[in-house]
Structures are given as structure tokens and as C-alpha cells.
Design goal:
heterodimer; A: alpha/beta; Rossmann fold; Dimethylsulfoxide Reductase, domain 2; Barwin-like endoglucanases; eight-stranded mixed sheet; six-stranded mixed barrel; globular; B: mainly alpha; TorD-like; 9 helices; binds iron/sulfur cluster
Chain lengths: 683, 205
């Protein structure tokens, strides 16, 4: 008989998203029937976004990968179903062969990113670590410059609890569009507004969030640092700074004043496209309507001066004493709750002859590094949690570099463009079919993920794949791989906790997470103790560390004039609410929304270029050209174009343009994706 | 043989055809050597009901044109249509035809499972493999067909399930097939289903 009762299990949305929502899965008859938010999650409070509520359609998607498959020749579309044994044997055989050929594991490379943010999804990195020294994509396309900037200024990455915003008088949403990309934050923002806070959105685009704000300030893309500088200058000239705070908690105020004073206000205004009234407004809000809570989005640091942009806003907050007090602070992203041991990464070879560590291949310049590193060359590429081919710059070069691989393995849910370009694809389980742990880069809650249903067809978790591979390698050659093949999922979870972490979560055992997510005991207000892990122990308005890394010691600087005459328009890559890059693209109902890629341009520019709404136009720069449908939008200014990067088209225009920062924390410079200069023409 | 006269399949032929389709959808024929295909063709040529049906004859004609070269793309095409890893071009799952999102493991899957339970049967890896994959439905039909007592259940299952979606499935095969063999099996299934329908109608159940 079919069962009439259902079971409820806990899950976490593992996507690269602010919310890291805890979810409840309802299962009846071994079938997932409903997914809801988890009311016990203190930040998301039982709500999901549209993507989250749609997970069933993702899990039971007809096109999910069902079996290990092999393709020959690569890219031909001629796929054969193979057994897991055959897949693992083929892969293990290649790993061993390459090791003997080169007497090292450097010809093996791993390229993993944020397709799944779970702790146990570090299994493949752990597996590669267990072999010895291998090659790996290192760096980060998302937040690298900002992470360095925060580090230079504060020495650590903290955020406040979102409830803290309720104490704010002024809220500045700087280059962030939470209505689309961080929906849970909006309830807190609305509540703060109700309690009297004024919300200012600073953005190059008149976003949905801007529409809900009290004030919108439209800036030129990348000029965030210039506007901050103008505001700082105004604050200085009108004594709006917090002298007491500056003396007690900052380092380098004197130097910064000296640096700012001679800079031209006019030039700053011209660079950010603002009037002095707008500058005065921001300065007075920061100086007189405190506390001011500033939230910085990720887009503003995807510029060549991206790190400087973030440092400039950090400085503004410090100058006005808006750090460490309830309702204040500069929020970007945090890592203080990531207190896991990451033991999964630390099963290193016991054989001292085998070198440990990685040979870094720049994540943002991967194609180039793949070709550069020839001693030995990379011959085996493992891709996981990553759609390399649609989410990379320099696509042609990348495809060329991939041709010299002898084996490409992709672990996936769907046949992405990257999987299409692989020799073997391995079907992965979703968060409804596996164990995991997830921490957020934004809020302070930790959630557990347990399996609800059997794996879809023959899919397996990455952890299971790593274990199988390790076991097989050791059967071929004793002690070849140190990654434990005999630990259960639960044992791996157990090893991620320490007593200190348990204490911080106020639990005695990880299984208690099955009753609900737990908040990590970190300060509710970032920098509440006003103690900073910088060399000076204070907020560094002048950073010797930055200077030593060939950067300006000050966060504030005017822009270099780098507009090109041939490509006078800035094309911004702004996320939309229904997809996360290439994820969620294949849901039929979502395909009805924004059916085809479009570019948004101001009608005045369209008129100037003779472009009709809805017509196909050409966008080009030195890297390539694309044809795309034009849509009019009054939300952008004359020189700014916007595209939602949920299709691979745009990559034809992208190369690697290094941002100023990123190496310090993430191991590689960010890619200045929002400095994409293009020209347009009607067809 | 008089081609204009439609024959009803006898039980033996029905069993044979269901078994053949079961093997086909289970992937057993993917590795069949060329010589064995010759033998299979000979058997098909002697199935009276199939031969009395336009689609059946069309299928056999297709297979008669088979060469070793046509065998090669068969597996790739079979996977494109029914297995993946690409977007499935002719889904072999009943439920995917019944909802907008085209998902598997839906209400129909459970209804099918209920039928199996009623007969004391269960698919292996339940919950991981959808019960309404054509392979399982065919296997279940074979089970029902083996006993005269289960005739009513058989007709009910056919009417409520396989016959409801298999035409759409065949249409997609016709549209997307790129190999002589998958197309032949698409025709053959279409023809055989027509015979099954007329048989059921004839029996007035
Ligand atoms: S995408 Fe983000 S907001 Fe949506 S369910 Fe996942 S974590 Fe929550």
C-alpha cells in the first residue's frame, strides 16, 4: 500500500547566494513532494526565493544526469553509458599512468567553484590533496578584491546580524539589489524603514531596490571610489567627521587628510557624475544621521579599482564613526562563522617523499595558465561545481587549452556546455539526496543537510565519488591515495566539529542540528569590540600592508581615465532573480521569463544609434562580437548597458582584466568583469 | 500474406513483442552483434499481426535495410532519445508527458507504483528510478499477460497508463530519431500499440 504519512527532513540551499536558506523537505513514498523554508532558521525565517520553492522541478528534472557516461570523441555528442566501476577504473588508471609518466601529480588539475557551497563538497579538493601536489584553479571571480580590501582595513571579515539594521537611522545600499539577489534582507530593510530609517541606494542602475528606497543616487559604473572621496572631502571641509572615533580606533587619519585635501572636488564630481548637493546629502546622512549602515554589493568591486572602491567606503564609515556601533558598519561578506575544521581537506599522503600543496592556476586566467604551465603540462582536468565553459573569460583560448587534455571529467547535475566538452560525466546527487553542512558568507547560521530521498538514478555524492576513487587507486597501488575510503558521511561530518565550535553553537553533538539550524556565537554587531586584527590593531586608513603589496596605502583615489574611444560604453553584468549564472536555466517555467538574452540600453542611446526596441544589435569590443536583442530601459544612463549573465553569449566579449586586489586572501586577483567596455551598432 | 487484413495478435505474439520492447528499452539490444540482428529480423518477418499492420511492415522494411554501418550510431541515438546525458528527446517516462515542467516522479508515477504493489511487485531502487519508465511498465504488462486471471487488470493498466502516453512517445521518436534502428522500433511500437488498442476494443473491455 502507498503510505499516507510523510517525513520531514532538513536541507540547505547550497547555491552561491547570500541567504544559504535552511529548507524542509517533505517526503512521502520515497518521493519528495514539497520543499519549504525552515521557520527555525533565524535569518531566512521559513521563506525561500522563487528558485528555492522550485527545487522539486530541479530534482526531478527529466534531463538530470542519470548514469556515468563516456563520450568519444570529445564534443561529438556520441555518448555511451558506462558503469560506475568502468568510470572509476578509467579515471584511476589515467591518474596512475600520468603519475608514472611525469613522476608527479602536477599533470592533474582540479577546477572547482561555488556550484555547491557545502563543506562535504570539498571532497574532491580533499581527494586531490590526498594524492600529493596537484594543479588547481586558485582565486575567485566573485569577491576577491573586496575580501582583500576588507582585510587591509579591518584585518578580518565580519558582518552584523541583519537585525542590527533596525537600529540604523541611515541605510546605504551601495551597488546591491537585494530585491533581486538577497530577498530575505528586504523584510529587515522595510522594518527599519518603518522605524524611521532612510534608505539610500547608490547604483549605476535604477534597480528594483532603488525604487523602494527613499533616495536613489545614480553613479557612473566604477566611480564608487570617486564619490566616496568627494563625500570624504566634504566631511572634512565641514567638520562632519568623528574626531574621537578617529583618534581612538583608526590608524592614518592624519595622512589621509593630507592626501585628500589637495585632491580636486570638481574632478571627483565629474568622475562620479554627481552634483555637490548629492555629495552634501550623503555626507550629512553619514555625519549627522547616525548610525549609518552601509551594505556593499559585489558588483562594485569587479572593477580594476574594485578593491580601492571598497576601501574608500570603509574609510568613509570610519571617518564618520559608523563602525562597531549598533546599526552601523560596512557589510560585505564574512567568514567568522566558518569554524569547521575542514579536516576533509587534510588527509595528506603519509609518504614524505610526496610533495603536498598545489600548483596554482589562476582561476580568472585559467586558460592562460593551463597553457603556460608545461613542467609537466596538465593532462587531466576534473571539473566540479562549475560550468567552466560558460562562466569564464577567454573562451576560445580555453577551448584550445582543453584540447590538450587527455581526460576531462565533469561531475554535474545536467549536461552543461562544460559537461558537453568532457570525456566522462558523472551524475551528482542534489542536496535532497546527500549529507552536508553549510555556512553562509552573509548571515551567522549553520545548517545541516540530510538525505530525504534515494539518489536519482545512479547519481552519487562527490564524497562518495572521492571515496570510490581513492579505494580503487589503493587497490591498484598500495598507499597511492590518502583520502579515507572507509569513513562514512557521518564520520566526515563529525570530524568537522571541535568542542569550541560546539560551544559556539550551544550544542553537544552535530546531530542536534537536525532539530534546526544554529547561530554561531559571534558579535551581533560587526567590530562591536572595536578590536581589529590589523597590524596597528585599528582600522587602517593608511595601510602599510597594502603599500607593501604595491597598492596605494589609502583606499581613496580618483580614477585613471581609462575610457576607450572605440568602446565608449560600459556593459554591466547584473544578476537577475530567477537564475544564478547558469544554474536554474533549464526549468521550463523559468524559460518563459526573459525568453532570450537581451541587452538593456537607454532610449536616448538607442535613438542616437538608430536602434529600434526589440531589434537585434551588434555588441563588440577587441575580444569579439555578439548579436543580441535590444530592449529599452530608462533604468540605465546613456553610457551604461546592462546584460543579465545567465547565458554564455557574453563570454565572447570577456578577457581577463585583473582587478587591483584579490591575491592576498583568495590567491589571485579578481576579474574586473564590470569594466567591460564595448561599442554597439544596429544591424 | 494478405496485408490488407488486420490480424489480432495471438497471446504468443503479444508476449514476444512485449518482451522484445522490454529488452529494447532495457538497452539489451545495444550490444547485439550483426548476426543476431539478422535472426531477430527473421523472427519479426514471421509475426503475423505485426506484418498485417502498416507501421509494423514499415519497421520490418527499415530493419531489412540494416547494414553494419547502421548499427554504429544506434547506441548514440538510443541514448539521445531515452538515456541522456543530453536533454531527452523522447522521454521514456509516463509522468514527463503529463506536467508542464516535464518532470519525472510525479502523481502518475505513484499511480503506476500502486498498480505494482497491488500485484506484490516493486521496482528495485524505488524512489531513485521512476516506476513509470517504459521498461518497468512493459515488464509489468508481461507479468499480467502471463495469467488469464489478470486480464482485467491488464486492460485497466494499459488504458490508464501505457496507452495514454505511448503515442506521444512514438511521435517524438519519429521526430528526433537519427538512426534506422531507433526509427524502426518507433514504428514497430506504434504499430503494435495500434494492434493492442484494436484488440482491447474488440474484446469490449
Ligand atoms: S537561491 Fe538563495 S534565497 Fe533562493 S533558496 Fe537558495 S539560498 Fe535561499
Amino acid at each position: 500500500m502507498l503510505d499516507q504519512t510523510y517525513s520531514i527532513t532538513r536541507h540547505v540551499c547550497p547555491r552561491n547566494c547570500y541567504s544559504s536558506c535552511s529548507m524542509l523537505g517533505y517526503t512521502k513514498n520515497r518521493r519528495l513532494i514539497k520543499v519549504t523554508g525552515d521557520p527555525k532558521h533565524g535569518y531566512t525565517k521559513g521563506l525561500l526565493c522563487a528558485k528555492g520553492y522550485n527545487y522539486i522541478n530541479n530534482v526531478y528534472h527529466l534531463d538530470r544526469l542519470k548514469y556515468p557516461m563516456r563520450q568519444y570523441p570529445r564534443g561529438s555528442g556520441q555518448w555511451q553509458r558506462i558503469s560506475w566501476t568502468e568510470a572509476i577504473d578509467t579515471i584511476a588508471g589515467k591518474v596512475i599512468e600520468l603519475y608514472h609518466r611525469y613522476d608527479s601529480h602536477l599533470s592533474l588539475a582540479l577546477n572547482k567553484y561555488s556550484g555547491n557551497m557545502g563543506v562535504l563538497h570539498h571532497a574532491m579538493e580533499g581527494f586531490f590533496n590526498g594524492l600529493g601536489r596537484t594543479s588547481r584553479a586558485v582565486g575567485n571571480p566573485c569577491w576577491a578584491p573586496g575580501m582583500d580590501a576588507i582585510y587591509y582595513d579591518y584585518g578580518e571579515h565580519q558582518t552584523s546580524d541583519m537585525e542590527d539594521i533596525l537600529h540604523a537611522e541611515t541605510i546605504i545600499l551601495w551597488g546591491i539589489n537585494p530585491v533581486w539577489t538577497s530577498i530575505h534582507a528586504m523584510n529587515y530593510i522595510y522594518e527599519a524603514q518603518k522605524r524611521g530609517a532612510k534608505v539610500i541606494t547608490i547604483d549605476p542602475v535604477y534597480t528594483e531596490t532603488a525604487k523602494k528606497s527613499d533616495t536613489f543616487i545614480q553613479i557612473k559604473p566604477g566611480s564608487d571610489g570617486a564619490i566616496a572621496l568627494a563625500v570624504a572631502k566634504y566631511i572634512l571641509e565641514h567638520n562632519l567627521y568623528d574626531a574621537e572615533f578617529l583618534t581612538a580606533h583608526t590608524n592614518g587619519w592624519g595622512e589621509l587628510q593630507e592626501y585628500i585635501q589637495p585632491l580636486s572636488m570638481e574632478e571627483a564630481l565629474q568622475q562620479c557624475g554627481q552634483t555637490i548637493e548629492a555629495i552634501q546629502f550623503i555626507a550629512e546622512r553619514l555625519g549627522r544621521n547616525k548610525p549609518a549602515y552601509i551594505w556593499l554589493g559585489f558588483g562594485m568591486q569587479r572593477h580594476q579599482n574594485g578593491g580601492q572602491n571598497i576601501r574608500a567606503v570603509n574609510a568613509l564609515a570610519a571617518i564618520t564613526g559608523n563602525i562597531g556601533r549598533k546599526g552601523s558598519g560596512v557589510q560585505f561578506g564574512q567568514r567568522t562563522t566558518w569554524k569547521f575544521t575542514y579536516n576533509i581537506l587534510n588527509h595528506l599522503p603519509s609518504d614524505n617523499q610526496k610533495a603536498a600543496g598545489v600548483r596554482a592556476l589562476d582561476f580568472n586566467n585559467f586558460a592562460n595558465d593551463l597553457q603556460m604551465q608545461q613542467d609537466p603540462p596538465v593532462k587531466f582536468l576534473w571539473i566540479t561545481c562549475r560550468n567552466l565553459i560558460t562562466q569564464s573569460a577567454n573562451i576560445q583560448q580555453l577551448k584550445k587549452a582543453l584540447q590538450s587534455m587527455e581526460l576531462i571529467v565533469t561531475v554535474e547535475h545536467f549536461l552543461t556546455e562544460t559537461a558537453q566538452y568532457s570525456d566522462i560525466v558523472l551524475p551528482a546527487t542534489t542536496q535532497f539526496e546527500e549529507w552536508d553542512l553549510v555556512a553562509s558568507y552573509w548571515h551567522h547560521w549553520i545548517s545541516i543537510n540530510q538525505p530525504a530521498i534515494p539518489p536519482y538514478f545512479e547519481s552519487k555524492s562527490e564524497l562518495e565519488i572521492a571515496r570510490m576513487l581513492s579505494k580503487r587507486l589503493n587497490e591498484f597501488e598500495a598507499d597511492f591515495s590518502a583520502f579515507p575510503s572507509d569513513f562514512t558521511d557521518e564520520e566526515f561530518i563529525e570530524q568537522e566539529f571541535t568542542d569550541e565550535f560546539y560551544q559556539s553553537l550551544q550544542i553537544g553533538d552535530w546531530r542536534e542540528l537536525l532539530k534546526g539550524p544554529r547561530r554561531v556565537d559571534v558579535p551581533k554587531t560587526a567590530w562591536e569590540a572595536l578590536e581589529f586584527k590589523t597590524p596597528s590593531g585599528k582600522i587602517e586608513l593608511f595601510s602599510q600592508q597594502a603599500s607593501e603589496n604595491q597598492l596605494s596605502p589609502f583606499g581613496m583615489a580618483l580614477l585613471d581615465n581609462r575610457k576607450s574611444e572605440n568602446y565608449p560604453f560600459t556593459l554591466l553584468l547584473n544578476h537577475e532573480p530567477f537564475r544564478i549564472n547558469s544554474q536554474f536555466q533549464n526549468l521550463p517555467s523559468y524559460k518563459q521569463i526573459n525568453k532570450e538574452p537581451s541587452i538593456y540600453l537607454h532610449p536616448s542611446l538607442a535613438k542616437e544609434k538608430g536602434i529600434r526596441a526589440g531589434s537585434l544589435i551588434r555588441i563588440f569590443n577587441e575580444n569579439g562580437e555578439i548579436m543580441i536583442r535590444a530592449r529599452y530601459s530608462e533604468e540605465v544612463n546613456h553610457h551604461t548597458l546592462v546584460i543579465h549573465p545567465n547565458h554564455p553569449l557574453i563570454n565572447k566579449l570577456l578577457a581577463f582584466t585583473p582587478a587591483d586586489m584579490g591575491e592576498f586572501i583568495t590567491g589571485g586577483k579578481g576579474n574586473a568583469l564590470n569594466d567591460l567596455q564595448v561599442n554597439i551598432a544596429k544591424l | 500474406m494478405n496485408h490488407s487484413e488486420i490480424k489480432h495478435s495471438c497471446l504468443e505474439e503479444r508476449m514476444f513483442m512485449y518482451q522484445l520492447f522490454l529488452h529494447y528499452y532495457r538497452g539489451d539490444l545495444l550490444k547485439l552483434p550483426a548476426a543476431e540482428w539478422g535472426k531477430l529480423l527473421e523472427i519479426l518477418e514471421c509475426q503475423p499481426a505485426l506484418q498485417s499492420n502498416d507501421w509494423g511492415r514499415k519497421a520490418v522494411l527499415q530493419l531489412q535495410n540494416m547494414t553494419t554501418q547502421t548499427l554504429e550510431p544506434f547506441e548514440y541515438d538510443f541514448n539521445r532519445l531515452f538515456v541522456g546525458p543530453n536533454k531527452l528527446l523522447a522521454s521514456p517516462f509516463e509522468s514527463s508527458y503529463q506536467n508542464f515542467e516535464g518532470t519525472v516522479m510525479q502523481a502518475e508515477t505513484l499511480k503506476v507504483r500502486n498498480f505494482y504493489y497491488y500485484e506484490g511487485l516493486q521496482v528495485a531502487n524505488e524512489g531513485g528510478l521512476p516506476d513509470d519508465h517504459i521498461q518497468f511498465e512493459l515488464e509489468f504488462i508481461l507479468h499480467l499477460l502471463s495469467s488469464e486471471k489478470k486480464k482485467e487488470a491488464l486492460h485497466l493498466f494499459l488504458e490508464k497508463h501505457l496507452l495514454k502516453w505511448v503515442d506521444q512517445h512514438c511521435a517524438r521518436i519519429e521526430e528526433h530519431s537519427q538512426s534506422l534502428i531507433t526509427l524502426a522500433f518507433g514504428y514497430m511500437l506504434k504499430g503494435f500499440i495500434l494492434l493492442e488498442k484494436s484488440l482491447i476494443e474488440g474484446e469490449g473491455l
